[in-house]
Design goal:
This is Aquaporin. Keywords: Membrane, Repeat, Transmembrane, Transmembrane helix, Transport. The chain is mainly alpha-helical. The chain has one domain (2-98). The chain has helices at residues 2-19, 22-33, 41-63, 71-80, 87-98. Helix 1 (2-19) packs antiparallel against helix 3 and helix 4 runs antiparallel to helix 5. The chain is elongated, with a radius of gyration of 17 Å. It starts with a helix and ends with a helix.
């Protein structure tokens, strides 16, 4: 349970740290491909960067043994009775997830 909470804290920190760079990454990729910032293609570039970000973070959650960066997903799964979480594990994991948000 503590190992998962530490993984949750690491994932939450990583998610917030990298999410703050998505706008800059979009501008860099758009400039590389010569896309004007007023173009509608900028939305496709941003969507692609978000997709890569989510896929990368999901891979990291698997590598960290089921850690999560999204406390809402854990609460919803617990309320639905899906997963291994107990009320005690939720009480330990939730603060670790929200500390960096």
């Amino acid at each position: 349970m503590i190992k998962t909470a530490i993984g949750d804290a690491l994932m939450s920190f990583g998610w917030m740290f990298t999410a703050s760079t998505l706008g800059i990454a979009t501008a860099v990729v758009a400039e590389y491909f010569g896309v004007d910032e007023e173009s509608k293609l900028i939305h496709a570039i941003f969507t692609g960067i978000i997709m890569v970000h989510i896929v990368f973070c999901e891979g990291m959650t698997v590598a960290l043994g089921g850690a999560s960066f999204n406390p809402t997903a854990n609460a919803a799964m617990y309320a639905a009775g899906i997963g291994d979480d107990t009320l005690l594990s939720m009480a330990v994991r939730f603060p670790a997830q929200v500390i960096y948000t």
